[in-house]
Design brief:
The chain is built from three helices and ten strands. By secondary structure, the chain is an alpha/beta fold. Strand 4 (90-95) and strand 5 (98-103) form a beta hairpin. The radius of gyration is 14 Å and the shape is globular.
Length: 175
């Protein structure tokens, strides 16, 4: 199975277009969105080419492939404009027989007992991480410590951290 895992788009149409190009290039079976899709958030400056309508339209093209969870900046209004559910705090999924617990990350402590036996995919920090069993794709729209706008590409037990500027691989992890 091939999947793209992305988080923290925050309404950045500039980097949603780059994510869209990667999706078209890789043609994944699943697109896993880890929250904070449209609104930039009260603590963040407006991201590049801020356009929630264009981000929504781009993501809605892939609604049949998307598995999404709610971020701390996502709301009922965002759920009304997306053609896929974004309101679950977490979901448990299986990729190639490997269990994954997916959440945005802002309330992981509340669910820690649920993901002890699986890998955790979560965003929220805007900082990518491939160490241990807690994996973070970084941020599509507003990276923090890391300067790169990133997402993860998963295929057959291998994660590749992708720089959305040029689609180069920053790091890899085999599980």
């Amino acid at each position: 199975m091939k999947a793209i895992i992305a988080s923290d788009i925050h309404g950045s149409y500039k980097y949603t277009k780059k994510l869209d190009k990667l999706i078209e290039q890789e043609n994944p079976e699943k697109i896993i969105l880890l929250g904070d899709l449209l609104y930039h958030g009260a603590r963040n400056a407006l991201p590049n080419e801020y356009s929630t309508i264009d981000v929504t339209n781009t993501l809605n093209k892939y609604s049949n492939k998307i598995i999404a969870v709610r971020g701390n900046c996502d709301s009922e209004v965002d759920d009304m404009v997306t053609d896929f559910d974004i309101m679950a705090d977490y979901k448990q999924i299986d990729l190639d027989g490997i269990k994954f617990f997916i959440s945005h990350g802002h309330i992981n402590d509340k669910y820690e007992d649920l993901f002890n036996d699986s890998y955790l995919l979560s965003g929220h920090t805007h900082i990518y991480n491939l160490e241990g069993k807690r994996l973070n794709p970084g941020s599509v729209g507003i990276p923090k410590v890391n300067k790169e706008h990133t997402c993860l590409l998963y295929e057959k037990g291998m994660f590749k951290l992708i720089n959305l500027e040029d689609f180069s691989v920053i790091d890899e992890k085999k599980i």
